[in-house]
Structures are given as C-alpha cells and as structure tokens.
Amino acid sequence: MLTAFGFTRAPFTKEIPPADLFPSQALQELAARLQVMVDTRALGVVTGEIGSGKSSAVRQLAAPRDPVRHPVVYLAESALNPLDVYAGVLDAFGVAPRWRRSLARRQFRDLMTDLYTHQHKVPVLICDEAQQLPFATLQELRCIANLAMDALTPFACILVGQPDLRATLRQRIFEAVQQRVTLRYHLTGLTRPELDAYLQHHVRRAGVDRPLFSPAAAELLFQHSQGLPRLVNRLATAALWEAAGRHAALVDADHVERAVAEWRDA
Q1: Measured between alpha carbons, how far is 160 from 37 in angstroms, rounded to an integer?
Q2: Is residue 67's pLDDT more than 80?
Q3: Which of 107, 145, 212, 242 is 20 to 30 Å from the Cα of 39, by its Cα?
Q4: Where are the CATH 1.10.8.60 domain residues in the chain?
Q5: Which regions of the chain carry the CATH code 3.40.50.300?
Q6: CA separation (Å) from 245 to 86, 184, 202, 265?
Q7: What CATH fold (topology level) applies to the domain 190-265?
Q8: CATH 3.40.50.300 fits 25-187, yes or no
Q9: Residue 188 gets which letter from DSSP?
Q10: How far is residue 88 CA from its own chain's centroid?
Q11: What are 164-189's pLDDT values in tens digits?
Q12: What is the pTM of this model?
C-alpha cells in the first residue's frame, strides 16, 4: 500500500508524532484546557468515547513540556488501588514506596511538597482509563487533592476516561471529589467538514500531496465512524489497501464499503 500510493510512511497510525496530530477544534479546545489544568495545578477530568483521541491529546500535552519543570507521570493500568497510585508516582521519582497506604500517602505528600517548594517543579499526574478506577481510589482523590488543607495543590492531576467516568463522579458519594474537580472536558469526534481536512492532513504528512479519497468515500467514512479518529484510521487504512489491491489511483465508495464489511466481520 505504501509504494502503491507513494507514501513515505503509514498515513493513519497511532504512532503519529504528537506534533503531526490533526488540530481539530475539539482537540485544540482540550489542549487549551489541559494547559490551564497544568498552569493552575488543578484536578481535571477528561472524557470521551472510545477512539475519540483522549490518549493522543494527553501525549500532545506531555510532548512539548519541559521534563525538568513539569515531570509527567503516566499511569494506565486498570483497577489501580490507592496504594498502586502512590507507588506508581513514588517509583517514577526513584522513591521506594512503603507498604501501607497511610505511609505511602505521607511519602507522596512529602515528595510533591518538596518538588514544588524546594525544586520548583510542578509534576503532572495522568491517570488514563480512569473509568476503571475502583471506589476506594476515587475516594482517595480527596486526599490526593488536599495535601495542604485546601491551601495549595503542588501538582496537576488529570483523570482520563470513557463517559462512564462522568456518570460515576456524579454519584452523591463522590460529591467531595466533584467539588475538587476544577476543569472538565468531553472530547467529541471530528465534524463532517473536519474529516475531509483530517484525511488530507494525514495523507500529506505521509508524503502524498494529492487527494486520495473521493467525496463519496469520505462521506461513507464519516457515516461509519461518526468522526472517531481511531475508527477513521482503521477504515481509511483498510480502504487504501482495497484500492491498492485493485490498482486504483483513488479510494472510492466501493473500497470503503468493502473495508467496512471486513471490519464488521472481524
């Protein structure tokens, strides 16, 4: 497929460098809010449908950041208990965690305070797949975000998850956590006009400076993906393979239909 169309690299892949991500309006709005979360050392919540680009947005946040001034700790294991969270952060900074939650929490508090007060660093803690966090861990966020009795939070903490996370945090039992969430954002998919620009953007970044998807093909891609970038990438790649296999210079609606049929049968 690469040689058939003259690509210098795969056009639709999750390994795309953060700087080459398509700047959709939603992604730009999220980037701005993530920046505010970091600048104000906030507890923030980012949600979105599967494949909407949440993790890519987080990578984009972390990529240009000064790793000395803003060290990023990324936790993505499912069902992390409170001790796992503290241990993951402590390990990232070379601190051996204690085996009891209360002791590890104290280590965490001392570390965050020292980094901010004495080393002039603002750590950024990112918990991905946060919809899977157990009850005890979500409740522990009250302690994580309350290190200095509400006077100062010396780090930013960003929870990233599927829409279930929003529903969970709305429950009355998490009211104390909700009150500490400063910023929230729900990431949506590409709009129909953005999809055309998205396809051309990634084709161009892969070394081809001409349209490769017919208007009818793009319309079908949008209908079947609802603008979710991960699904757009999968279907667009499969459609390109279909077109290449038939020695076509342009991806048309038939190629997309075959790609969709294959995806549904997978």
Answers
A1: 13
A2: no
A3: 107
A4: 190-265
A5: 25-187
A6: 51, 45, 21, 19
A7: Helicase, Ruva Protein; domain 3 (1.10.8)
A8: yes
A9: -
A10: 19
A11: 999 999 999 999 888 889 899 999 89
A12: 0.88
